[in-house]
Amino acid sequence: LRKVTTHRLFEMKERNEKITMLTAYDYTMAKIVDQAGIDVILVGDSASNVIAGNITTLPMTLDEMIYHGRSVMKAVERALVVVDMPFGSYQGNSTLALASAIRIMKETGADCLKLEGGEEILDSVKRILSAGIPIIGHLGLTPQSINKFGTYTVRAREEQEAKRLISDAHLLEEVGCSAIVLEKIPAQLAGQVASELKIPIIGIGAGNQVDGQVLVIHDMLGMTNGFSPRFLRRYANLHDVIFEAAQHYSKDVKSGDFPNEKEQY
Ligand code: KIV
Ligand code: NA
């Protein structure tokens, strides 16, 4: 059971082997996902939405990310574990960024961090990398900037934003990032970035011409049925499974059927 490393992701790209990535935020889920052979587990700040019930990812704190990261790390034996740096913990201040990064690494034992943005956060990226901490970049639709974008629609459809994204991707590779997540951009643009860069490009809503895919686990398990972007494929309908199990349990308790003779002491 060889632990996945950032170097291994690089080798997978060279071998044309697709990289699989899913989010997890807790011990039980991380254990299942790791045992299923998923290459990378992302402790995403999407925990803000699917765990904490916030509308955006912005409220997530460093302490909350560390709590989730530590829970996931206790379960994982094989996958590379990546923790998202939360909004406010790295932007515009590379000293703060390094301190935040070191806290996550020390207190969770995670393998790698993910930061949203390109040129505008390059000082923070370089400073964290200089401490020997691997980084995965994140470009395109970066949810921590939702208040700037004003919409969760596809990014970089226009030439100016596409050019900026390509140049940001090159910058992140040049300073030493291990991989880049591209979220919700045209497939052709994502494919171009993947072919120009040596580091792996992992897409979400970025088409098939990239080196790997990532989805939020609650979405792909069909627990979040109100959220249906085009890029989402549902691999289960856990919403209905859980709903029906809860109703069935309720019926059994109310009728006196549960617990029965064999289910008591
Ligand atoms: O927080 C998250 O789940 C993410 C993925 C969507 C890439 O950043
Ligand atoms: Na995220």
Strand content: 5-15%
CATH class reads Alpha Beta
Largest sheet, strands/sense/barrel: 8 strands, parallel, barrel
Q: Report the order of strands and helices.
A: HEHEHHEHEHEHHEHEEHH
Order of the strands making up the biggest sheet: 1-2-3-4-5-6-7-8
Calculate the mean pLDDT score and round it: 98
Shape: globular
Bound small molecules, deduplicated: 3-methyl-2-oxobutanoic acid, sodium ion
Low-pLDDT residue spans = none
Number of helices: 11
Radius of gyration: 20 Å
Domains counted in the coordinates: how many?
A: 1
State the helicity in percent bands: 40-55%
Number of strands: 8
- What fold name goes in the CATH topology slot? TIM Barrel
**Could you state the CATH homologous superfamily?**
Phosphoenolpyruvate-binding domains
Give me the CATH architecture, please: Alpha-Beta Barrel
